[in-house]
Structures
1.
Amino acid sequence: MHFDLIVIGGGAAGFFGAIQAAEMRAGLKILILEKSNKLLSKVKISGGGRCNVTHHNYNPFEFSRHYPRGEKALKNLLSIFHAEHTVKWFASKGVILNAESDGRMFPHTNSSQTIIDCFISEAQKLKIKIMLGKNVSQIKQEKNEIKIFCADGDSYSATKILVATGGSPQAHAYQFIADLHHTIKTPIPSLFTFNDSDQKFKDLMGVSVPHAEVKIAGTKFLQEGPVLITHWGLSGPAVIKLSSWAAEYLYQVQYKFTVLVNWLGGMKEDELREILLRNKLSTSKQKVTTHSLFKLPLRLAQRLYALAEIGDDRIWSELSKKELNRLIEYLIRCPFNITGKTTFKEEFVTCGGVDLSEININSMESKKMNNVYFAGEVLNIDGETGGFNFQNAWTTSFIAAKSIASGF
């Protein structure tokens, strides 16, 4: 069975690419092949089931800085199709996206099903054929067409194909692409939380600090933002963002490292010491442990006092230089010995994938085989949490679709 375009992958990039190609070139015969028995499964569970569609930043240069891998390529691509284009496209289909205070954008219904319904409805209108349970095992160039072979023995042919299989923790998922002589950067986890081996803060699970600084000791990797204490260690936007930027380094050290948390954000030691010394004078008769400093949650502050070995009966005027120094250390360089990570498998984001140097970025076409295009997380592009990975899917699949449609 021959098609003008076969899209491999029934996820965000696959659906968006197929729909865009059909809208740009009426009458194209398009087929989506999905290896599982579910469509858009990652869209379904993303953002806690709300689907964080994109991020409310319409500046391509600023937006691209949220990608540890792929920033340079996306800076150019986002000038063609960026977050504002995404918002307008969904609005044209009756789906309004609302921005939250942190910039994340969700459908007005706060349900990922709205995005899924939109894609499936548009695909049906455009007569895009969809087949489930089709695990592609091989792609071959034959004369003027491309043959696609599936693990179940079925085969299909197309004039052009778009590979949008998404990221996978398993290297074998990229084998049919590697067989095309493409280099696959080893897929490793990105976006995960840290497991604290000592678990000194385990009983404080649920306590959060809105603006902390998290640094990997001995490196330049550092992020600021909300930090959440969990029963297994550390989470929150600052930690997850840090895991993204340090993904390759953390993989190399086998997820055994030390994290230093500055609970006071970017406050420096000299400034903190001055404030504490003033506090010593102004609240000299007060017990140190009865109130919280810098509006930290009281339970957290009291744990830091305990770690600094400041007794419950200690008053500020009696605080020794040694005690003060220990308190400073735990406030701005609180150590956590990390041994491992926690990754939510359903929301797995990969650092790695198809090497961008082997892709014509202006068209998303393979440099190894004509009429083969790539889009989404299958490429060695990944972003921070907050809608950036979905925007990569929308942008790269739009560019691919534009190039595909112009070829007919």
Note: Residues 388-406 form the longest helix (19 residues).
2.
Amino acid sequence: MRCILAFFAFFSLSAVSIDAFSQVNFSGYLKNYTVIQDAIDDGPIRIDRIYSMQNSGRFMLDMFNDNQVWQLHYEVGVDSTSKLQQLGESFMVPERQSYRLTDIRPTIGPTGKKNIVPQNLDRMNVQFQMEGGDLTIGRQAITFGSARIINPSDVFLPFDVRTLNTEYRAGIDAVRFQKPIAQLGELDMGIILGPDGKSENSAAFFQLLTNVSGSDYQFTAMRFAEQNLIGAGVQSALGVLGFWLEAAYVSGDEDYTRASVGVDYAFTERVFGMIEYHLNEAGSSNPDNYLEQLDDAAFTAGGVFLMGKNYLIPAISWQANALLSLSLQSLVNLDDSSMFLSINGNYSLSDNLYMTMGYYHFAGNDFNFSNEVPIEQQFQFGSEYGGNPDSIYMSLQYYF
């Protein structure tokens, strides 16, 4: 609630009224995800098939005048995901730092019920458009990187590849200045405030984007959660292939390198393919270490969500016609031979209404259990994806 009060106090102190803006846009969406998750029967873990439904609405107010843009986005929904499934997700995925100074309650009403009401104040910022550049203050989305799928230099709440709703990147609290350089370059710098503004929860970054001889280059330096990152990337062409390379080195509690390299190719006007290799030295080549490493700063604060070291990620998409598009993507852990496969199709029912159907398949060794070792060692990953249940989903999305 403090976030909302602070925003409207700022709004009032600036003596801004709706009439002062030359353009006011109110838009949003309503989305429904119906998910069927396969049963789990793996040692002591036995969970029946799960049927869940996630409904959300995003309401977006954007106001413009000659030199300011005000933005307020709020999302609320109803989630019928079972408590067992929520516990499983929280166990498999580390609790990540929010990079928000303060926040509203994540849910409305009581928690611990089958039906919960999540809410998210996702954008709350003002941008001052000045002669020298743009200054944005408040909750906003900030991304980094040159790679297509996994960005090594992107540490502020990137999406896990298994996330269903990835339309809007989660907002973080920041003061950011972006200055254009020449026609295609930009100087981007800022301060990000985490919980209570403490240095161990916060970050600062500097990024230079430029274009040389038709190739885009990106250089990044940042300090986050008392870790240091230096990164660079390039997007270019290799003959008829699109090409990208991005790498980042992190030093601090642990030193590690992450890198992504890949190519893409348009087979026809409607068929487009890509393949990316990702190196993740923050992970491990031994599944026995997966559970322990989830507490590392790379996973809790550094945007790392892959547990292995070496990955191959092929993807292909087909625009079947003006209304229907199909895509297939696989993420293969080369160290433990497990795989995550996603297939989805998107169909336009009307100008504002869309339907999506998808299938998630996981392959690999299941979890390992032993009663002959200390209790903290009884559970071990057999592979990164082998213990995940397959699922299918259908989604309806209405935009207004």
Note: The first strand starts at residue 23 and ends at 37.
